[in-house]
Amino acid sequence: MQQKYSQRLFYVTGAVPPRQGSYNAAIADQTANLAIRGLLLFLIGVFLALVLNLLQVQRNVTLFPPDGFASIFSSAWWVPPCCGTASAVIGLLYPCIDRLLGEPHKFKREWSSVMRCVAVFVGINHASAKVDFANNVQLSLTLAALSIGLWWTFDRSCSGLGLGFAIAFLATLTTQLLVYNGLFQYTSPDFLYVRSWLPCIFFAGVITMGSIGRQLAMYEYKVVQEKTHQD
User: Where would I find the H helices in 14-110?
Assistant: First the structure.
């Protein structure tokens, strides 16, 4: 009975069923792999936050209160860890949702595609900070089209689209609360204390981190399969 339950569990999670007597070891390996993926996603999120937020601060799009760390990282000390944590959650959530829905995401699942997705995301953020548009409406519509284009080019899954919209909404709401409480501010807010194009940036970031998370999960799955065949 226990063997049947363990086989069913590993079928749902997408892992390879372990041999009899190695169930605990397989669970420990899965936990360690999950922690490694989470750490990698956290570090990627921190790096992207430092680089992309530097663009916003240099163009005086965002302003932070004076702080010792702010002078070093061009942002408040809490921004990179928060972005890293959010990136880890998003990157781990995407493959989990795929497995729960029973629809493994296989569209453009290679590292070259993931790197192009990251490059497009950086370009969208760069455009929001440095490209001059006639008005904010034109800028917001342009970034919205680019963000949807990012999803269509590198994702095309309904789960990815739904999660992108939902997380972008929650992130925008959280940012509005932070600005309202004076933790930082935008120089020219035009949408409830923030910039109207901010949800587009969040949506593109969610799609990007979801793509990275899916690729890491697929790489881990291939490594586990190779180990199983060798054993």
Answer: 23-58, 68-73, 79-101
